[in-house]
Amino acid sequence: MTKILTVRELVRGFRSGLSVCCSRSGRGWRDAGTRLLSMKAQSAHLVLDDGTRMKGFSFGHSRSSTGELVFNTGLVGYPEALTDPSYRGQILTLTYPIVGNYGVPDTQELDSLGLRTNVESDRIQVSGLLVQDYSHDYSHWKSVKSLAQWLQEEKVPALYGVDTRMLTKIIRDKGTVLGKIEFDEQSVEIYDPNQRNLVADVSTKEVRVFGKGNPIKIVAVDCGIKHNIIRLLVKRGAEVHLVPWDQDLLGLQYDGLFISNGPGDPALATTLVQNLRKVLESDRREPVFGICMGNQITALAAGAKSYKLPMGNRGQNQPVLNLLTGQAFITAQNHGYGIDSQSLPPGWSPLFVNANDGTNEGIMHDSKPVFTAQFHPEAKGGPTDTEFLFDAFISLIRNGKEVSIVSVMPRKEQPTRRAQVSKVLVLGSGGLSIGQAGEFDYSGSQAIKAMKEENVKTVLMNPNIASVQTNELGSKQADSVYFLPVTPHFVSEVIRTERPDGILLSMGGQTALNCGVELYQSGVLQRFGVQVLGTPVESIMATEDRQLFSDRLTEIGEKIAPSIAVDTVSDALQAAERIGYPVMLRSAYALGGLGSGLCVDRDQLRETARKALAMSSQILVEKSLMGWKEVEYEVVRDVADNCVTVCNMENFDPLGIHTGDSIVVAPSQTLSNEEYHLLRETAIKVVRHLGIVGECNIQYALHPGSLEYCIIEVNARLSRSSALASKATGYPLAFVAAKLALGIPLPEIRNAVSEKTTACFEPSLDYIVTKVPRWDLDRFQGMTREIGSAMKSVGEVMAVGRTFEESIQKALRMCHPSVNGFEPQLPMNEAWAEPPDLQQNLAVPSSTRIFSLAKALHNGVTVDEIHALTAIDKWFLHKLRRITEMEKHLGQYSSSTVPLTLLLKAKQDGFSDRQVGAALHLEETEARELRLRQGIRPWVKQIDTLAAEYPAVTNYLYCTYHGQEHDIDFRDQGVMVLGCGPYHIGSSVEFDWCAVSCIRALRRLGRRTVVVNHNPETVSTDFDECDRLYFEELTLERVLDVVQQEGCSGSIISVGGQIPNNLAIPLHQCGVSILGTSPLQIHRAEERSVFSTILDQLGVAQAPWRALSSLEDAIAFTSQVGYPCLLRPSYVLSGSAMNVVYGQQEMKRFLEEATRVSQEHPVVITKFIEGAREVEVDAVAKQGKVLAHAITEHVEDAGVHSGDATLMLPTQNISQGALEKVKIATRKIAQAFDISGPFNTQFLVKGNDVMVIECNLRASRSFPFVSKTLGVDFIDVATRVMVGENIDQSRLPTLDNPIIPVDYVGIKAPMFSWPRLRDADPVLRCEMASTGEVACFGSDIYSAFLKAMLSTGFKLPQKGILVGIQHSFRPKFLAAAHQLNKEGFKLYATEGTSAWLTANDVPAIPVAWPNQDSPGSAASLPSISRLITDGDIDLVVNLPNNNTMFIKDNFLIRRMAIDHGVPLITNFQVVNLFAEAIKHSGKLDATSLFHYRQQDTSQQG
User: Fold this and answer.
1) Cα–Cα distances in angstroms (integers) from residue 799 to residues 501, 557, 1037, in the given order
2) Lowest mean pLDDT among 153-157, 326-330, 1132-1136, 1497-1501
3) Active site residues per annotation
4) Phi-psi group of 505: left, alpha or beta (phi > 0 → left; psi -120 to 50 → alpha; rest → beta)
């Protein structure tokens, strides 16, 4: 295997020279950048025959040219397309906007046949080329020159800067369009090339022979033959005699006759038509095969008619059906004329038909061996799916009269039979965690929608209370929903109750997949007659078991990296010795790279393997391919073996970083046609061999300097990438996969975007999508920012643009409001280390490396130097360098001197108004006014899956500064709803639920909706959820652009969490109508000092507080009230930088952090009330009157963030007197802030004392929980309030008439991702740490609590419990310890705790502290590590506080539990409730919430 230098080696190589390089290259940097940007490209015009003029910039030869305008929707293959003779006389428009990325290979290189190796003819055939954006810097191992150089060498004009989407729509709508590329003072007349016989222009003038001596003689009529056709015939044993187009054919001797592709009107090639007619009318039996023009010539010779197609079929994604077998193929095409199938004479039949427009794609003779294809089976560029037609041709020749056309075609699959199911169980993924997040809410929702569309009843099991898919009512919802753990036991119980006859395993991530495999292996599914829909379980197991996977790939000659599957640490060490270090470790049956890691030596491997085997029964030790490219394909296959690749994606980062943690672009940017289709062909081969039905994801490692590749893995289910691909292309993968699981063939499913074409196609993109992950690593103590093969990001964003620069800058801003774009500035305005170690920051991947790249480029580090340190492809680095150069260049001007063209170019390069303002020394609003005065506004474009080839009926939109027209009109004046942005800690799927509930409520009310969001994991960004979906930034600039363009009647900012809430005042100041509570009131509540002042004025109790202006203020306050105290920044979500301070040393550190995240607003300090219980009120008010409310209680005492707390509804331990005080305070706050809409208030309750903590005048993360528990959609109520609808209050839980469940209790439990965060301390603090939540229900608190715990992945202990308790907890914990002992658990504890427990009649076995190495009795004590590894300890209770001794040891114990997959409890109240629940719960039932509520209603009735 080709060797790649590791990053370590590269760093060593550059260690001595980088700083010198930086300073050396930095001196000339400004001049180079200025020179680059000031070089003005020569302009020219595209002139259409109707007089339309479009300005562009030349990158080809400066010569005017004329021809017919055509477009090609291919994503790759421009060298092949430009040299295709079928384009003779045409000005080619490439719909994919970024062209020139991989340069041009050696166009003179010849193969063994004397043909040009890398192109399809001896010259560029097009009359001109039009593109949106030209890549001046190319990057590819095989390229020798730029596209511009090649065009200039061949004297072909080319323009960039043209709105190619607009042009495509003109061609689509008008049909034939003639035009010219015209340079100044080079006037040329528009001419129709189709009026002359173009075949004569491109045909050979003499007979040429290829493959001389081969046994089969084939005469190939050259109408414009492509080189690859000749190659494929010769490869199959043919001696090809290439003859001129007008050669007499009847008198030639041959074994087979081939009619090639070619340009123009076939009817003008009359000589050829007549010559071929003589052959067809003779008694000759030699097979005849025609391609493209050959199809048309054959049909004309047979007596059929040709006609000019409205726009022609050109591209690489045309779906074609074989009428003999029903099989569908994806084909490359390039023709402007077609054959009228109705005009075929008797004895002839259509063979292929276009699945989209129904046009003829090939014919066959009923008795003679004559057949044709309108498409290009030689596929260069394009897919190779139909290359078998050359085999069919050769078979006809070799076997003569013994075979027919039918017999040489691929055998027809057995007729597909739809799955005979009436009720399907859908398994969800549970609570959100790192590696398994909101994408499964989206995929599950899509699956249910598909099932309902096919009249199949659905039963959903998913404890994720915050997800849209677990809604009880609605046309897109499941018939029954069970909030239960997705475990074999509970799934079996639901199967027993509901009796489904089908089950879907592929929509719930690894949780559902692993559970389904276990149910299959245990025989449960077979026993109850439940059919696994979609991919068979055997195929799932073959992709999840690393050894099986490797074996199956070997069967078809494909490979993974050299690897060995093992199940012990010792075997892993032996495997690594055989393979050689460094090695990559991967876990079986794991998600998001859990347990994986790069190991450079034995010690690192031993530790990583030990942790991985704690989570998985098998690991793969694999040769490291660090530095290779990582590429993904999303593949769809049906039961009839129709197979398409829906989206390909390329990681910005090289292999070694989990794809979930990498920046990803779609489509790939640096792959040539050869690489793209090599991997595509492999993907289809693998998926077919594995027998996957539905959707899957295949990941590759591709060598950056050759065609060598390895398959990393196949996910036989919907994945995070699937959700991204769905949103990136507009192709609803989960929806289609669910239909395929029912046995519906792919060609029968409609493309939801066009509603005319089939879903059996491969989307064409005329934009670029960039995904950037969102991390929250700074929240966790002890965490580094380094990233690797195990995923750590908590969410992601997706940006759409017409160039990489535009897309990447948008994406970076989407990730965090503090980021302006690609700038040398860390998020949250964090300072760089002094001095910054750029070598380290570049060489070691981290969550902030993209900003280190900006800093390096800003400092003058060259692209070559950065590439050597990072292995990031130079094409990406060149693009980033251009952003940096633009910023520098822009900074040389002022607002009065900046040229219009430069300002527009900056916007086209993705610069925000804030960035432009910073460069020109203006405020953001001033920069906006400047560009608006210059008439610079974004254009609104559609995402339509087909690059404008067909009209889109959906309004799935993005904004770009590359364009000349909008794709839509703006007459709706709908209500705008701002979504939640990227999932991150504190803002997750619950806010997507709120947004979707709001959107659906508006649509039920007949209101048009405009949604702005950029999170590909959400249901709100499903294009059929709203009337207008803008996949766009949630920034002031972009929201104003959309509001002003759409003329929105109002905007709702209170359902998407803190990001839209923070826009309330800025939008209000810009004149935007904010629906609901006034933005001024929102500001009063968010500004903590103002809010606390108002509470004092209202006489509402709160803890002592003070607004801080200095550290001295804080110290003075603590001297009055004493420690502990709580620091609280303003305008933050999930307790960002909120900390309990126990002493003066912590005060300085925490105050600096709080000030950094809340720079524009004061930080407030309050007295921290110890021993208090926290209570929350979720409510909706109208003009200050509370219409609906719910009160929840935390299990944990105050000090744990509400997002990390376990919530109970109804409350269990709060007195009626305290509850009344809570209601009184809620009523006062609603009135004081004149609330109209949703709000959430948090209280401290200690005895009967009630104090307000804070109030958020927006929806909260507990809104889904209270809404579903009570059966009242609080967001529906709030939406009606905000748009002024009348509301029936009789069924609402008002303050006077609350709805309080009697016969059931709901428990919402947090979901943590500690196993992913290997260095983090898994303890709960004021700052939120959970990544998701679940909720379960029971007849009492105990059963609900245990089910909720089990839903988080908690496993009930069977053997022993390790107890570690801080001294102050001991007396309170004794009852719980007695109870656990009584339940039969063996207790272990460190020496002091063990002695205390034993002294209090609770037997406990002493164990040694992890770091204890002192002599004496401790030396013989059992090791905690060994007890956990051996399974003797299967629960760890570790209760620290701020005074805990043995801080390091306790941390090691907690981490040991997490890293070995052992449940951990770190909260005193939770462990008490756990002990009580074990005592009281008994057998846990599998009752649905609906049945509980039905029972509760009948009881109360």
Assistant:
1) 41, 38, 15
2) 1132-1136
3) 292, 376, 378
4) alpha
